[in-house]
Amino acid sequence: MSSRYLPEVSEAEAQGRVAEIYEEIRRTVGMPIVNLVYRHLAVEPRRLETVWTELRRNLGTPEAERLVERAALPGVTRIPSRALAAIGVDGEKLRLARSTLDV
Questions:
Q1: Interval 57-96: pLDDT, tens
Q2: I want to staple 42 with a disulfide (CB 3.0 to 4.6 A). Which of 9, 12, 84, 100 is the partner?
Q3: How far is the C-alpha of 62 from the C-alpha of 50, rounded, in Å?
Q4: How does 58-86 read in b/e, with b if 16+ C-beta sit within 10 Å?
C-alpha cells in the first residue's frame, strides 16, 4: 500500500480484541463489513475500543432512530429487480447493497 493512505487493520488481519470488536460492529450495525473508519482506528486497538464503546451505547436509542427517520429521502422510488438483474445485481449482491443502504 502506498504511503499516501492511512494505515488500517483489515478484517482478515484482525486478531484478538480487534476481531471481537469488528464482530460487534457488524452485528450491531447489521453490515457484512466493517467501515473503513473503524479499520483505521484499529491500528491503535485501545483507541478503537474506546471509540466503539462510546458510540455503541448511542446506537439503537430513540434519538438515533429519530435521526434515521429524518434522514430518509422522501420520493425515492425503488429500482425494479429486473433492471438490477440486467446489470448483474441480483442475489447476494442485492442483499449486500440493501444492508449497506439500510445502515
A1: 888 788 877 877 777 677 777 778 788 888 888 788 878 8
A2: 9
A3: 23
A4: eeeeeeeeeeeeeeeeeeeeeeeeeeeee
pLDDT at 17 over 90: yes
- Comparing C-alpha atoms, which of 76, 73, 14, 71 is closest to residue 48? 14
Per-residue pLDDT tens over the stretch 45-61: 999 999 999 998 888 78
pTM of the predicted model as reported, rounded to 2 decimal places: 0.64
Residue with C-alpha cell 462510546? 54
What stretches of 12-102 show up as alpha helix (H) in DSSP?
A: 16-29, 36-41, 45-56, 62-71, 81-86, 91-102
DSSP secondary structure letter of residue 5 = S
